[in-house]
Amino acid sequence: xxxxxxxDAMRRAIALAARALGATSPNPVVGCVILDPQGTAxxxxxxxxxxxxxxxxxxxxxASAAGHDVRGATAVVTLxxxxxxxxxxxxxQALITAGIARVVYAVADPTDDATGGAATLAAAxxxxxxxxxxxxxxxxxxxxxxxVLHGRPFVLWKYAATLDGRSAAADGTSRWITSADSRxxxxxxxxxxxxxxxxxxxxxxxxxxxxxxxxEDAVQPLRVxxxxxxxxxxxxxxxxxxAPTLIAVGEHADTTHLPGVDVVRLPRAGADGGGHGGLDVxxxxxxxxxxxxxxxxxEGGPALAGSFISAGxxxxxxxxxxxxxxxxxxxxxxxxxxxxxxxxxxxEVTDVARLGPDLRxxxxxxxxxxxxxxx
Length: 375
Hints:
With 375 residues, the protein is an alpha/beta fold.
């Protein structure tokens, strides 16, 4: 059974893994801490980039660089060590070769090619235990696990609103509803995402840039504009070279004014495709998944957000609420196909934080997704 020291090491490994959010796709984020028999950390590491050394190899290298002998040590890892050779070798074999005596991991690897590392370790005589802080580790790897289990990217919808739920004033002005602290936090979310998605309405109203600022070494996310009629103009800020950009348009849209721009043509939404006349949300997510996108930050306006909610394609919601009232103006969420309180999308609040004068509320859909019918 895992010890308290191993649990502390797992928390550290989870924190290490989070440093690479937005940089490892299509791979998972993974952290590793190596402990000597007395529980002292000998080395630690995390998977920094796809194609680079895995967390276990990084931790072994760090221990070696510090002059430590890891024979008989324990490796604490957030994900079951891989059992296959891809761009790097199998981590299970690397641990065996190094003389690691015990491996404690949080989440079993669900992929067909990499699973089996625990069995390989056990067959080699390594004491192996799984499941330590599995929920916490899985939450940190939610994007990758969603992609593996559901074949689509994980979607986080972010919005900013006043306390009465308005995302802009009646005249359309929206800069700035929330504080500089909240806006800085949004750049953290962008840095952790593989793609940032907005709609054509947001593009016309705000001409957003969508690139990450003030995060050194951040991998710039793919900027995605959902623009059914290809209304984006060549001078839009999102078309500069600060980050890659993809314009998703309808199948028959005229894109002759966008030479050299990466464009994908998608079908219009059907009865179960989300949205009301816009592009099919599931088709969009399928295209992004095929491009290696594992996490999406949805920054679009109320109409696009309503399309994603209607399609059942929002996994987490982060709302930045400013202590202000407008009384009129667009709501943060548009028509999501919910016509009665009994069908409301119920959420579980997982975090509440103060950012300057604002509140940041994080929530996830409940397992039932809708409220029960009242008697």
